[in-house]
Amino acid sequence: MSEDDRSPRYQEGMKTRRAVLGDDWVDAAEARKTDFDAPFQTLITEAAWGHVWSRPGWTRRERSMVTIALLAALGQHDELAMHVRATANTGASAEDLREAMLHVAIYAGVPAANHAIKIVKCTLAEMEGEGEGE
Fold this sequence. Notes:
The protein is an all-alpha fold. 78% of the residues lie in helices and 0% in strands.
């Protein structure tokens, strides 16, 4: 099934997913997709990106900060790094991330925040390094 044949929610979700994560990231994820995980990819595109991230009311910056805090609190480190990289597109700043990590420390625990801060710092440093060649 081509993307043009997908539901309007899927199409909206894919547009938002690309805007937040970037075409390169989404294209790579799509290239890795198999018959096994295709239904899951459709689910997250429609539900996370089409239903939640595409809603009015919060900016992408606000959604980014909340998502990062939740991923840090839950120990979802790969997803955390991915969403830190996405701040290049959402407008969430390093200062925003620092404040989110302070909330994680108080509401989810210092160990969760401590490890997440390491990931955030490393990812931000990688992003700064990538920008040097431009």
